[in-house]
Amino acid sequence: MKTTFKTVFNEMDDELMNLDMQENAPVDIDIDKIKSEVFMQIGNKKGAKKKLSKKFVVMLVAAVILAGGTIGAFATGGVQQIFGKIFQNSDGMNDLGLFDGGNVEVKSEDSSLDIKLLGVTGDGEKLCSAIEITKKDGSPVIDKDYSYPYTSELPFNGSSWEDKLTVNGEDETQNILQSPQYYLSDGNKTLTIYLFTTTASGLDKSLQGGRMTFISKQFHVNKVTNELASVKLPGQRDPIFDTIRGNDELSADDVLFDWEELAKKRSALGLSEEDFTTIDYNGNRIYCQAEPKTFALPFTISYDLNYRTDKFIEKELSAESAPAIVVKNTRNTKMTVSPFSIYLSGECDADNPDSPTEYGLDKCFLLPEWDDTSKVTLTDGTVYYLFGNEGGEHRTDENGVYHTTVHLKYSTVIGPPLNPENIFVNIKDIRSVVINGETVYEK
């Protein structure tokens, strides 16, 4: 097998890669021979192991790349670099793993676009994929003056994207893909799209080996022409949820902005409130004048879903061992602590008289109150609070049995945050898990 692979390592700064190899020089790679050498090293338990040369190690990496098709994962520098931008506390993400998606297919009506799947990571219930879009000639993907992606379909007409999920050849598309997150960088020369996949209601099968298809149509973005105020997000519980709980009616903007001050600024400019809007981007909410525009972004990408689940905390629960969490007569109950969420799964009779009936409560589980009695504490003292989040399995079968998987999401504030957070918790750093005042895990 002959190939040229030095360019694969151009972005790597590890001294291991500092080899004197000529550009575009063909290299013979015998994968079987390399595998044999590696297994000999692994099996050599009695004597001192033979030290592998730098060149041999590079050949090994190249062979793995050629055999497994994981060039994107190697070239981009790891899971932290790809997903660290959107996940808080992401230093330990390598423990979760970065997967190349497998069998990636890309089609586009725009021949100028270069579209790559950077990788997939997740825990089975929640997956995140990263897609990178650039121009083949190195020019900006869109006009560089438009740098604030619009996260909602309104006020634009027409859908921006579609998704399709198949598992074992069957269509399982059930609003499984949340709204994508778009990030522009390098003077708009790079557009990164993050896709968040969450198991939909009624999906009672593993996503492992499933196949995701993302159909992009257009891309909505703003050009900010006059910024009057900017505030950092999150750090504030969403007051809209307080309204649901019966508290005074408030909007998020009522809490965040000084409207009297903004009125003075608008008046000085001779402008009205209708001339302004708010934009959420990169952790900030901006009060500004903006010009929205729609850019065509036509492409379709399909890939297999891969992830790992072997490094999570799992524990069986019951109404007897955890009465503040598990409803009576709930069976086959399990708690799974993953880096993205805590999951409570089980089943109970749909007409169970002990099931709670108040707003927001599951039939089999008592969801956390919005206080400090449900939280995860890390070994360094960091605390993440827990609250019930949409997603997971909630279905009643033909025998009247209710099956559920409840998602408890991590939050830096008590209750749902004002701006949705993506928090990664390294399982090795968890000291304790408390739900509704009950300690269900302690290291």
Protein architecture, described:
The strands form four sheets. Strands 14, 15, 16, 17, 18, 19, 20, 21 and 22 form a nine-stranded antiparallel sheet that branches. Strands 3, 6, 7, 8, 11, 12 and 13 form a seven-stranded antiparallel sheet that branches. Residues 1-32, 38-49 and 65-77 have low confidence and may be disordered. 29% of the residues are buried. Helix content is 14%, strand content 35%. The chain is mainly beta and 443 residues long. It contains seven helices and 22 strands. It is globular and about 65 Å long.
Descriptive tags:
443 residues; mainly beta; 9-stranded antiparallel beta sheet; 7-stranded antiparallel beta sheet; 7 helices; 22 strands; 35% strand
* Element pattern in H and E: EEHHHHEEEEEEEEEHHHEEEEEEEEEEE
Low-pLDDT stretches? 1-32, 38-49, 65-77
- Please state the CA-atom Rg, rounded to the nearest Å: 25 Å
Q: What number is the mean pLDDT?
A: 78
SSE-based structural type: mainly beta
Helix content: 10-25%
The major pleated sheet works out as: 9 strands, antiparallel
* Molecular shape: globular
Q: Could you give the count of β-strands?
A: 22
| DSSP helical segment count | 7
Which percent range describes the beta-strand content? 35-45%
Q: Report, as a whole number of angstroms, the end-to-end distance.
A: 50 Å
Secondary-structure topology with pairs:
Elements: E1 2-3, E2 27-28, H1 31-43, H2 54-68, H3 71-75, H4 79-83, E3 105-108, E4 113-122, E5 126-135, E6 148-149, E7 161-167, E8 170-171, E9 181-185, E10 190-198, E11 211-232, H5 239-244, H6 252-256, H7 259-269, E12 277-281, E13 284-304, E14 313-316, E15 331-337, E16 341-349, E17 375-378, E18 383-389, E19 394-396, E20 401-411, E21 430-435, E22 438-442
Antiparallel strand pairs: 1-2, 3-13, 4-5, 5-10, 6-11, 7-8, 7-11, 9-10, 11-13, 12-13, 14-15, 15-16, 16-20, 17-18, 17-21, 18-20, 19-20, 21-22
